[in-house]
Amino acid sequence: MASGITAETSRYCFLDLDFDDHRAKLATAAGFVDATDTRYGFTSQDLRLLGGSEISRVKDLIATDHEWSSKATSIGVETKPPVGGNRVVVELYWEVAPMAAENFATLCANGSIIPGSKDKKPKPVPTGSSGKPLSYRGSTMHRCVPGFVLQGGDFVLANGSGGESIYNGKKFKDERAGLNLKHDQKYILSMGNSGKNANSSQFFFTFDAAPQCDGKHVIFGRAISGFEVLDKAETLGTPGGDPTATIRITDCGVFGPLETPGAGYWYDAPDPDSFSGVSPIFMVLPRVAVLAPSQAVLEKFQKAMGDAAIVTLVSAETYKEEDAQISRLNELLGSFFVDVIVVAPVCKAIIPKLSLPKSWSDAKVTMEEAIIDAKPVEAIACVRTKSWLAKRDWRLEGTS
């Protein structure tokens, strides 16, 4: 099992959900661009940096190229990053359901490095009694019912009838404290099971209140970021539960607040020096909260930042009192829902009255790196160059 999995080290985890194998399709298109750069006159080997009419030409060119047409036909072609990224961050309720939390965190962490550990490289994923790797990585979300649940974790049979816990492969008991919690809102994380005291590796997120699950399924966490990703998943659901497109967990692990990117997507860049021919790069999408005096100004920020960030809007028209604005911004920072706060110039008088949560100060993030005064047209550039994100060894979307 993954060593070092405790409530202190693993309170947060992440899942990267890929829809309709978009990642593989984007990689194929990028490989084509790289291989035919000279032949077709592309200006860059990096698909993400192509622009104008070139990007719309990629699909047709692949389809008519004798070396690549079969690939284009078999998997289709994707040439744009996923809007909203792919990452969902969850908080685990260790104090409520420690066995369920440890089980989930371990299945996320196996095969990766836990933030803060001294490990230089990940340890091999252990094999379970089923003969399958004990990891959510590569498994699918097999059930998706709009207005109800998104369920996954069956890395054994991939159909909801399998699964395996970290506890010698045995099913484990329901934890009463988690069983007593209510499925009363969206984005709750709960255990899937095959009956009473029959928990393994399956889990589900709620899309709405689900009182029919109360007392039957152990709640052990909630999504705290990536709501837009879960909302995208819901659009692929059906009343019968079979998704209309594959929803795959391409990566997962322990989320270290201020150490692990909170949003983004995977881009498999062509790399002739790599054994696989690609080098996976996680393209980070900044999670930005914007405080502005009105909805009209907020819409200007939203339009200016476009798809280059995950934006949360905080309007002074809604939070009329200054104390309410401060409370809302502190809530967003304290829950690690956002990475940066951008304040419209007309509201900048509030900045000296804001303070960073202790966890942020402990991580040596300064006020100037977390709270930025900027106009709409300069907001995303300021986030990319002045925020604490710019100091991490990360690849921010829109930068080279």
UniProtKB/TrEMBL annotation:
One Pfam short name: Pro_isomerase
Residue ranges of every copy of the PPIase cyclophilin-type domain listed in the record: 86-254
Top-level division of the source organism's lineage: Eukaryota
Keywords linked to the UniProt accession: Isomerase
An annotated Gene Ontology molecular function: peptidyl-prolyl cis-trans isomerase activity
Annotated region described as Disordered, given as residue ranges: 116-136
Transmembrane segment boundaries: none
GO cellular component, one term: cytoplasm
InterPro entries, sorted: Cyclophilin-like_dom_sf, Cyclophilin-type_PPIase_dom
One annotated GO biological process: protein folding
PANTHER family to which the protein is assigned, alphabetical: PEPTIDYL-PROLYL CIS-TRANS ISOMERASE, PEPTIDYL-PROLYL CIS-TRANS ISOMERASE D-RELATED
Protein name: Cis-trans isomerase
Taxonomic source organism: Seminavis robusta
